[in-house]
Amino acid sequence: GQQVMQIPQYQHVQEGEDFTTYCNSSTTLSNIQWYKQRPGGHPVFLIQLVKSGEVKKQKRLTFQFGEAKKNSSLHITATQTTDVGTYFCAGRGSGGSNYKLTFGKGTLLTVNP
Amino acid sequence: NAGVTQTPKFQVLKTGQSMTLQCAQDMNHNSMYWYRQDPGMGLRLIYYSASEGTTDKGEVPNGYNVSRLNKREFSLRLESAAPSQTSVYFCASSEGRWAGRETQYFGPGTRLLVL
Prior knowledge:
Chain A is mostly beta strands. Chain A contains no helices and eleven strands. In chain A, strand 9 and strand 10 form a beta hairpin. The model of chain A has no long low-confidence stretch (mean pLDDT 93). Chain B has strands at 4-7, 10-13, 19-25, 31-38, 42-51, 54-57, 64-68, 74-78, 87-94, 105-106, 110-114. Chain B contains no helices and eleven strands. In chain B, strand 7 and strand 8 (74-78) form a beta hairpin. Chain B is mostly beta strands and 115 residues long.
C-alpha cells in the first residue's frame, strides 16, 4: 500500500533558527496536505499542494511539492515558540479509487526560547 | 458553529467491554472519518463515510464497527475492547465526497485506555 515517510521524527531548535521537515511517498501523489497539531490538541489543516513543483508561502512557512510529486517539504523561517507542535504531511494517491489520505508519522518541533 | 464534536473526552475500559464513541459535525459536510493516533505512528484511518448510509474500511478497521446515523453523526463502536485499542481517537469531516482533495476538520479527540 501507499506509504508516506516523514523526517526527522523530532527536531529541537533555538528560537530564531530555521526548521524543515521532509515528506516522501513511495508512489506518485495526486496532492499533499500539511497539518499542525499542538501538544494535547487536534490536527489543524495548514495547506494543500496539487501541482508539480508548486511552492506556497504562509508568512514564515514555505511549502514545496516536488517535480515528480513524490516528495514535499515544510520550511519555517525564524522559528517562534508558537510554532511548537507536530507537523504532519498527508498524501493522496494518484490512481483509481485511492482517494484516502495517508498521513506521515509527523515531525515534533520543540523551540527553546 | 461547534465544528466537529466528540464524546466522551476520556474513557477507561476493561478488556472485553464494549463502547461507542460519538461524533457529530454541524458544517453540513458529506464525508466523515475515524482515525486513531498512537505515539510515533501518526494518524491511521479506521473507517470512512462519504455520505449517509455508506461506509468504507480504512487502514486499520479490525476490531471496530461504524454507523453513519445521518449526515451529522458518525459513531465508532468497539465490540470487545483490547489493550491494543488504547489510543487517541479523532473524528474528522470534509465538505464533499473526494476525501483526499479536501480540508479535513478534526474533532478534539477521545482518549481511550483499555486495561
